[in-house]
Structures are given as C-alpha cells and as structure tokens.
Amino acid sequence: MSEGKAKGKLAVYWAASCGGCDISTLGIDTKILDVAEHFDIVMWPCAADGKVHDIEKMADGEIDVCLFNGGIRTSEQEYMAQLLRKKSKVLVAFGSCASEGCIPGLGNLNDKASCFKTVYHDSPSLDNPNGVEPQPVTEVPEGKLHLPVYYDTLKTLGQTVKVDYMLPGCPPESDRIWDAIVAILENKLPEPGSVIGSNTTVCDECPRKREEKKIKKFYRTWEIEVDPDRCLLEQGLLCAGIATRAGCGALCPQVNSPCIGCYGPNNGVEDHGMQLLSAVASVIDSEDPDEIDAIIKEGIPDPVGSFYRFSLAQSNLRRKNKAGV
Q1: Predicted TM-score (pTM) of this structure
Q2: Nearest 5°: CA angle at 306, between 302 and 312?
Q3: Which of 3, 43, 59, 208 matches a 20 to 30 Å C-alpha distance to 287?
Q4: What is the pLDDT of residue 3?
Q5: Position 322 in a domain
Q6: Which range marks the domain in which residue 19 is found?
Q7: H/E segment holding residue 65
Q8: Do 240 and 178 fall into the same domain?
Q9: Closest CA to 87 of 116, 40, 119, 55
Q10: What is the largest CA-CA distance in the chain?
Q11: In this structure, are 158 and 54 located in the same domain?
C-alpha cells in the first residue's frame, strides 16, 4: 500500500486450534506496529474485543485479508468460516489446523459419541454422577441457553469454504508470517490457491550430514544417544523432513529432535502421510516382508500419529470409517 492510501481491514480468527498461531503472530514483535500502520484490525478474538454482529454488518468483501487459523468442528466455527469468507477479499488458511486439520484432526479417529464418552463419562478425574453432556439447547428459568453443535468430523477450512492461500506450520514461524504480510502489502502473492512459502523440504534446510539411508531399526528419541551431526533418519529416528515442506529452518533437527511434519507437503502432493510413508518404506534395509513388518511394528507403534499427525483431516483417509468406530 502506498503512503497516504486508506488503511486496509484485517481480520484474524481462531477456530479449532490451540492458540499457537496467535502467539506466533505476536512473535513478529515490533513489526506489529507496521501491520497497524497499514491495516485496521476489525476482528482478532485473542487480542481485541471485536463483535460478530459488527462483521455481519459489513459489506461483502469489505475485509481485505482474513487470517483464519483452526479447523472446523462445531456449527459456530462453520458459521464464522462462511461469514469471514463472504466478508473477505482474501481468505488465508493460516497454520496447519486450518490447512490440514493438524492435531484436532486426529479426533477423526473417533466420532462425537466416543469423544463425549471419554470426556464426560470415562475420564478418571471426572466428577459427573448424573452423566451430564453439553446440549445445543438447554432450558433454564431465564430462557434458553445455546451451545454450538459439536460435529462427528473435523473438516479443514478448505473443505468448508473456498480458500485463497495457505500458510502452513504448527504454528507458522513468525518470519514466514512477516514474509506473507509483506507479500500482501506489496501485492506479490502467488497464484490464488497456492501455498505461501517454500517448495523445498526440511532436509534441504537441515545442516546435518547425509549419506546412504539404510534402516534396520527405528528408535524413539530417548532410546539412543543422538549423533549431533548425522542425519536423524539414518540413525533410525523417524524424521519427516524427507517429505515435509521447508520454512521452519529445520529447527527441530538442529536440537536432535526429528521433524514431525508440521509444514505439510510440497506442491503437487495429494496426501502427505502417504508421501512420508513411501519415503520411509524406501529406506528400510530389507526385502523380507516379515522382517519389514517387524521393523515397522516394533519401531513405529502409532502409524496414524506418525504419518498423519498433522494431515489426517486433509488426507485421502479424512477419518476412520464410521461403521468401525
């Protein structure tokens, strides 16, 4: 935006997510003042007292940019996704929860009834002798109380409304958020529907030495003493960097912790979990089906949590078959 031009309008929203994206946004530090110089923030529940009815009164497309983080698990979140889509010129699926489903998306391994059974009936620390569960409508002497409807399945933002851009990460690194803001201000965004970010892998950013990968056994991080210079995958740690988009600076591998895949897949990859699974399968040093099966079962006890930790809701699987829940 050129000097003297009227400010744009920016909205930031938080749906089914942990709040880390909002914290990372504040991580741009004093650059938040530059954002305020160019945008009026019309909604940001984490930081400002914006009202939904004020957004409802706006003209369609009046908001210039909306950064929407979080998946869609309730009727309220679905309504806000539809409302902010309608009111925004540019809608960004901000962070892994909005773009892939992320950790909340692992709830798709169960349904609403299973979740409620665990939380409101079976939890060891629970004190709920009457088996009370949240209801969409509850009658009280003062009238009716309304709660959002909790859905069986968590959906991504893009499975709910049309998304213009994705900014990956759990959360996106503050530097990548600032890069996206600069691209918006300078009108240098990629083609609509694109990911704002790199199209290389975490391995390309990782300074560790890489040789031929031949894995006979997978380990958990506490089971071995990690060589600080050698590729983690070559040491038998399940590192997702081989199939995960760059953008984080390979921060986890640099502190001896394997990449867990929060920046999602590169362009053109339909299913991140399948890509990662294929990459890992290719480095197992065996052609014996029984030995391969043993290596995987013993070293990777949670395949869904390992390969689809961030992407289950966005994947070809989407959720566990409801008939089998």
Answers
A1: 0.92
A2: 105
A3: 208
A4: 53
A5: no
A6: 8-104+153-185
A7: strand 63-69
A8: no
A9: 55
A10: 71
A11: yes
Rounded Cα distance between 319 and 312, Å, is 7
Residue 87 lies inside a defined structural domain of this protein: yes
Alpha carbon distances (Å) from 307 to 189, 259, 322? 30, 11, 21
Q: For residue range 202-243, list pLDDT tens digits in order.
A: 999 999 999 988 999 999 999 999 999 999 999 999 999 999
Phi, then psi, of 272 in degrees rounded to 5: -60, -40
pLDDT in tens, 242-278: 999 999 999 999 999 999 999 999 999 999 999 999 9
Q: Which residue intervals of 188-244 are DSSP H helices?
A: 202-205
Burial of 165 (0-12, 13-18, 19+ CB in 10 A): buried
- Is 297 part of any domain? yes
Nearest-Å Rg of the Cα atoms of the chain is 22
pLDDT of residue 6: 84
Mean pLDDT of 94-113: 96
**Angstrom distance (rounded) from CA 18 to CA 102:** 10
How far is the C-alpha of 13 from the C-alpha of 30, rounded, in Å? 21
Strands 72-74 and 150-155: antiparallel
For residue 301, pLDDT beyond 80: yes
Whole-number Å distance between alpha carbons of 72 and 153:
9
Amino acid at 148: P
Per DSSP, 200 falls in state: S
What tokens does 132 get? 């009370």
User: Cβ(21)–Cβ(96) under 8 Å?
Assistant: no
What's the one-letter identity of residue 146?
H
Mean pLDDT, the chain, whole residue set: 93
CA-wise closest residue to 47 among 71, 74, 28:
28
- Whether the CB-CB separation of 247 and 197 falls below 8 Å is answered with yes
Task: Decide: 236 and 299 in contact? Cβ < 8 Å.
Answer: yes
